[in-house]
Amino acid sequence: MKDDVRRQERRKGFHPGSRMEGQGRLALRVGIMLLAVGVLSVVNFSITQADDQPLPSMTVGYQNGTITAIHEKTLDIDGRTYAVMPDTVMLDQHGEAMEPGRLMVSAEVKFHVKKEQSNMIDKMIVTLPF
């Protein structure tokens, strides 16, 4: 009789070792969910870090530096003086418009100077220290 039951189970695709009880099935589902959450959080973190940096194509021709002094109409970047005009485009590290009043010494900058005048900044991306 037992042999007949085993044959029928094999035909149906049932094997005694492949049956999972409720707790085992729950543990498997929880494990899969934790793995999925872990992978998604790593992917999300790497995307977030990349979003804080300006696009490389956007900063072609820009110079890097650190603001060492702030004057009324000029900035010293790494000890060299640059004029900042009222129409200078200033963006923060997130690409949003920034007011000149938020500038501070020790802020990292990527800046572009006018072709005609190498000491006048026309575009600047500012990374403020935390």
Structural class: alpha+beta
CATH topology of the largest domain: OB fold (Dihydrolipoamide Acetyltransferase, E2P)
Number of self-contained structural domains? 2
Distance between the termini: 77 Å
Percent in helix: 25-40%
Range of strand content: 25-35%
Which tags fit this structure?
130 residues; alpha+beta; OB fold (Dihydrolipoamide Acetyltransferase, E2P); 2 domains; 5-stranded mixed β-barrel
Write a structural description.
The chain is an alpha+beta fold and 130 residues long. It folds into 2 domains: 2-51; 56-127, OB fold (Dihydrolipoamide Acetyltransferase, E2P), CATH 2.40.50. Helices cover 32% and strands 30% of the residues. It has helices at 2-12, 22-51, and strands at 63-70, 74-77, 80-92, 108-113, 120-127. Strands 1-2-3-5-4 form a 5-stranded mixed β-barrel. Strand 4 and strand 5 form a beta hairpin. The longest helix has 30 residues, at 22-51. It is rod-shaped and about 95 Å long.
Short description:
The protein is an alpha+beta fold. Helices cover 32% and strands 30% of the residues.
Q: Secondary-structure map with pairings?
A:
Blueprint: H1 2-12, H2 22-51, E1 63-70, E2 74-77, E3 80-92, E4 108-113, E5 120-127
Parallel strand pairs: 3-5
Antiparallel strand pairs: 1-2, 1-4, 2-3, 4-5
